[in-house]
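During the first year of the project, the team set up a workflow for recording each protein of interest as an amino acid sequence followed immediately by a discrete structure-token representation. This format lets reviewers and collaborators read both layers of information side by side without switching files. As required by the reporting guidelines, we include two representative entries from the current panel. The first entry is reproduced here exactly as it appears in our internal archive.
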Amino acid sequence: MSTAAPRPAAPDHLWSVDEHLEDILATVRPLEPIELQLLDAQGCVLVDDVTVPVSLPPFDNSSMDGYAVRVADVAGASEEFPAVLEVVGDVAAGQAELLHVGPGQAARIMTGAPLPPGAETVVPVEWTDGGLGEGPVTGMRARSLAPEAAAGEVHVYRPAEARAHVRAEGSDVKAGVRALEAGTILGPPQIALLAAIGRGSVRVRPRPRVVVLSTGSELVQPGEELADGQIYDSNSFALTAAARDAGAIAYRVGAVADDAETLRSTIEDQLVRADLMVTTGGVSVGAYDVVKEALSHVGDEDEPGSGVEFRKLAMQPGKPQGFGSIGPDHIPLLALPGNPVSSYVSFELFVRPAIRTLMGLDDVHRPSTTAKLVADEALSSPKGRRQFLRGTYADGEVRPVGGAGSHLIAALAHADALIVVPEDVESVEPGAEVEVVLLG
């Protein structure tokens, strides 16, 4: 949670991307650990190392449907001269009392069933007549349909080496070893492993709850009719989806009109379900930029350290940004610009790392690499600004998608990378090596 207000600066100070992100990450703290049932823990970050209490598998078991036998009894077996063994019964998965397999005997065994005492190997049913005396079979008949196959004799047509088709005790993981490390995000395979070793619950940092709110009287919900001067609200959908992609439980709030009191009231109502608030729009210098109006003086003497500061960053797109904490619990709030590309780029640079920090992860950033720029002409960039251009990355090369305009959302839908042009670079020639942030 938030523990400090942003550091103050002169009103005309131009913050760097790194300074702004440093302030955010210095303020946001990982959520407190809680104990959750396995399925509730999906997507959460493991707090403690998990040690295996019992080996997997916990006993030698068959990997095939077939017959548990002694190696010597099937040595030299062939279709012309099959080994003929006495069937002493069935061994099924989950069976507690096991048969003993003696010389000249076989036990019909099912996949996953424990290897019975005396048996040394498993012969697949396809190597036998299935106890039916009619030559090689392709499968094992159900006990209810052929109870006689669980007794009598079985003809075995091929030999088997010792422990063939046997899953050894501990062959997956042995008791006492570390199964999962602290910091692991629990996905389906990790949930499966925890269940397999008998863990019904686990201590994790919960997925942060992120409330996304867009502002603007011109915004209309998708599915409704547009009037003159109106546009559909895409930002709140994009950012809510992005928050979920980052690992959060995200709640989308419908667009709020350009009224400071309504916005302030809506935000206060949403604090009860928020570990992080994200707004989009209303942070620039216009007469209707209500986020600044509503939140610039939200902190007071009763809530020391709270408040939201609005900044200008040396970046394009996304120059106007807001950051701080609000409410008695000092919930972190990030106020992003309203242009679609600006808000999405800002999310990737600032909100996603904040979400990953709340989750308790060490690596909170998207992966980055260098790539060869493939373009028809040089890319221009404003002096003193770090520019982030949309691109597509493949096989060590990156191609720009669309132009530099912060409203070009169609191009964003086709991008899987951000091309980073540093502050001191005004032109990048085709063929140059550039930094690339990978988005997927």
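The second entry, processed by the same pipeline in the following quarter, appears below.
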Amino acid sequence: MKKSWKLVSTLCILTLMAAALAACSGSNTPSATNEPQSATDAPKKTDAPSKEIPTLVWWLIGGQVPNNFDKAVDAMNAYTAEKIGVKIDIKVASWGEWDTKINTIVNTGEPFDIMFTNSGKYSKQVAMGAFADITDLVQSETPDLYKLIPEKVWDGTKIGGKYYSVPTYKDSSLTQYWVYDDKYVQKYNIDINSIKTLQDLDGPLRSMKSGEGKSFYPLPMTQGEGLNGFFNTYDDLTLGFAPIGVRTDDESRTVVSVLEQPDIMANLKLLHQWYQDGIINPDAPTKTENDKGRAFFAAQAFPGAEVSWQINDAVEKYSMVQHFGPIYTTSTIQGSLNAISANSKYKKEALKYLELVNTDPKLRNMLAFGELGVDYNNVNGEKVIERISDTWPLAAYSQGTFFNLAVTKGAPEDQWDQVKKLNDAAISSTVLGFALDISNIQTELANSQAVWDKYKYELITGASDPEKMIPKITAELMSAGMDTIMKAAQEQINAYFK
């Protein structure tokens, strides 16, 4: 042991002498004689990577996680660790559990760094103090992200004049489509371009029901969605609470009890008739996940969206027809947001990660499509991809902009240019820019929401008779404080637009 110690000591002395000689000579050129200098530099190289790379918890919405999910996320992490020194731990709340899961996380203070949210929850979560104010940080730390997103879209996320989330810059205006499995369109000779209203749908849905039999449901629904876009003609003031709103074309900006409006009542009566006649599935009020391969559904969408649905649902062809919009409301802008936890230790890192998602096509595609070579292949660099599996669970609209995302093979190559044109052509709700401040009405809102939650699944899927239920629901809502919310909303609107 003594000999070994002497040998090590001698080597150390020689190393130091060699380093000193190199320094005295002023030489910076690597050579055999100054190899000890690189040895003394080695700890510096070790120190930099030894700094802990933070792993951020990001809650997203999606489907069932596939077997290769961890492997796909590992590939993303290898890429982002090198690019910005940040990794991600993606948590997926399923479509059916998302409402409950996200509420629980926020209410219990469960740690997270980034969370997908939307207009149905955002203002309430901000009022609860769940999200960080990023107004200054996003401009100073991530200027490329700030510049990417138009001012109108940023403004749509403001609460109290501040930013609490990064909006997903995509089809930020709302365009609503009817979507048909084309085999039924052909079989029943449906003129899909003439169908603009629910009443127009009655004949085609009944033709399918009559032709396909008792166990076939032409308009399948789930409890959380009902008929997508049912309340589109009313601006919900970012509440995510359907019973209160302003009709989007109402120049007087009058706050109304939406359920009592004649157009809504007529459509609810038609849904109820369809439910009774077996056009809507009988388990709609309790069903949490859609089946694949629906004969017909409604969706907020954009040109080419049907290509991904065809892959996911194993349907040969979906035919898609626009019937509403495009329109901008504050809620459409807030339809997809990613907020940073007020308690996150890594707020800057979280913003830098979201900046990379929104500016780096390679990462954007991995998040949207999964594992390269397993879930998708590149066809034209990062610009066109081909899907080779239907199991990737994450919803692309929840993550980042569409405008650095690859087009899926089969969709128009100018798909995202078409989406930009929809945004440019969108009309504006008469209350665009307004977001209701709920800080003084949280109790009334919570109580009213509880009433609506008790009845909404039965109502929006057609299971209950609206002529009987709406007077009952409205009376309970008013007792819970909905009249107070409506009054506050009207006062705030009048002050905002004076």
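For the second entry, the following points were noted during internal review. Residues 241 and 453 are 10 Å apart (CA to CA). The longest helix spans residues 2-25. Both points are flagged for discussion at the upcoming steering committee meeting.
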